[in-house]
Amino acid sequence: MTAHSPAVPAAAEASGVPVGRARRGDMAATEDDFAEFVRVALPGLMRYGHALTGNPHDAADLVQTVLEKVGARWSKISRTTEDPTAYVRKAMANAHISRWRRTRRETLLAEFPDVPAIPQQDRLENEPVWQALRDLPPRQRAVVVLRYYEGLSELEIADTLGVSCGTVKSQASKALTSLRKRLGDALEGGDV
Predict the structure, then answer these.
(1) pTM
(2) Which intervals carry biased composition (Low complexity) (predicted)?
(3) What is the mean pLDDT of residues 104-123?
């Protein structure tokens, strides 16, 4: 290796590939790896985002925001993380919770729209289970979605959210109690 480029692999120098090309090649490989990761993981991340946010539009925004941040750091994340999908799920849950905390008090508009938007009805909008799930606090919703929608174990959920297994259990218990309470009336009335 040369003194001015300690990060360049010796094989690149030995092969006669100029240093600049070796770095560009590594960067292209990293971009290709990230593109492949996104291609494979995107459908599951969109489903997870939809379950977290309660609608497909916010889900798409959440996924895009998190993937932009992850893409910028992909080479480090792919080297240091065993399961990049779990890393992205954790980032999504954290970003959603942060956004929820910022916006739960008020929603500000710079200007009112001239023409009212025609809202497209989400097919799950009036579904009692989705309504009850949307009403849960973000961390409880994340635990329920990861457990029952994504099929992760308590340990995997704890790793994904960066909390203890005890926290996962307590959040799941609180969430299920709340869902039973909210859905109990609908179940008795025959709506579900």
Answers:
(1) 0.52
(2) 1-20
(3) 62
